[in-house]
Amino acid sequence: SPKTSPKLDPLRACPTCCPMSAPLPPVESVRVQLQAALKRPPFVDGHVLAPEVVELDAPAPEGLGKDASSDVVWERWVAFSEPGPQGRVPVLLARPRPLHGAAAAAAGRRAAVLVLHGTLQTKEDRAVDLARYARKGFVVACFDSRYRGERGSV
User: How far apart are CA 136 and CA 99, in angstroms?
Assistant: First the structure.
């Protein structure tokens, strides 16, 4: 007689890595544990460093041409991932230039896209992609990975 696999119960854990009898924890319990894990620990002297604005309506990154700022707003920010110089994370952000009148009222909130640069690249190397997404209505950000770009000399 052919072997039949056990019926999967959606309220039970995965049978390949957990016993079938182990129930999944309640959703609220998982949510609380996830929020606790994501809570950033205090940095130096018990305070968390908030992101800082470096430049709003900044010039477009080099190589995009002078019209790259006509319909895209460029911003430069610094976020912090950990104490010390290596924890300083430079961010390049692009968003559609604000509309005027009734079109602005209809725009509302926008979806966000995070673009990651490749090995041996920097956030500025992805500026063409940031502009393309911003022109389609997204808010787009790219940061310099550790040891690259503005973080390369730290």
Answer: 13
Q: Helix or strand or coil: residue 65?
A: coil
Query: Where does the chain show beta strands of DSSP type E?
Result: 52-58, 72-80, 88-96, 112-114, 139-143
Helix (H, G, I), strand (E, B) or coil at 103: helix
- The two three-digit tokens of residue 79, written as one number: 């976020």
Residue 154: CB partners within 8 Å, gap ≥ 6? 85, 86, 88, 147
Question: Per the confidence metrics, is the pTM higher than 0.85?
Answer: no
Could you give the angle at the alpha carbon of 26 between the alpha carbons of 24 and 29, nearest 5°? Answer: 120
Helix/strand/coil for 127:
helix
Where does 12-154 show beta strands of DSSP type E?
A: 52-58, 72-80, 88-96, 112-114, 139-143
Choose among 97, 1, 91: nearest CA to 51. 91
Tens of pLDDT, residue by residue over 7-50, are 555 545 555 555 555 677 888 888 788 777 766 555 556 566 77
C-alpha to C-alpha distance for 55 and 61, rounded to whole angstroms = 13
Write out the H or E segment, with its range, that includes residue 28.
Answer: helix 27-38
